[in-house]
Predict the structure.
Amino acid sequence: MTTKSNFLDTPLKISNVKQSNWDKLYKVSDYALDYNLHLFKGIRDARLNGQQELLDFRRSIFDSVPEDYKKMLFYGIDDVTGTLECTTTARLQERLLGLLIFERHRRDIALLNALLAEGGSDKKVETIELGDPYVYEIKSVLFKGFQGREESDDNEGDKEKNKTGGKFMKFAMIQNLEFDYEHELADEEADEEDSEEIRCDDDLLEQFLTDDIVSFNDSLKKLKIEGKSDDDIMKYIVEECRIGKVFIPMAGGTIFSGED
């Protein structure tokens, strides 16, 4: 998964995305949106809090793989300062998180205004574009519910295992390994028909807006009309829905293949 040369280094702005893509994102259910926000934010937090662990892990991979394989991997470690360069895969995931936070912020304000109107207030909160979406505190009850369940799972599990993010840290580790060709930025002259190339925020959002995401609510409504039980519906969400859009680099996916 590759990107346009300066695309990831530019500030996130709502105006950078076509209105048609925002319109499509508006139709995504709160469940699918908040689930991915929960997932992406958890991975980002695990990455930021676990830099030393990620650095040690990447070094250990380079020390253990065959020389020919090692030559294909992105190293990205400054051995003098001991700093770790973020993979393009992780940067893309973080960029997508920022775009989704813009949409969640819009929905939070819309809900607040609806509550004010319901209470008979003439006041209306205007939506101001977030300067830094990553510091925004999401107000969604559904999102907070996902966060609460995660904390509950951590409390019941191994404290040592969960201290740097549990399953989120595993995703961060997978995204910490990519081939050189995955890390390199796409040539602006590359074939524009290649759907795997991401050159801008529109391309990134379009990769997120798959049929699984957009039609999620319709699928649930169909199951309810068919009289499916809550257990059957939850089983469908867990086993069949593909609404978690975590980016997996080829190198990280290969290294972790076969692991639980």
User: Anything to note?
Assistant: Strands lie at 2-3, 77-78, 83-84, 197-198. The mean pLDDT is 87.
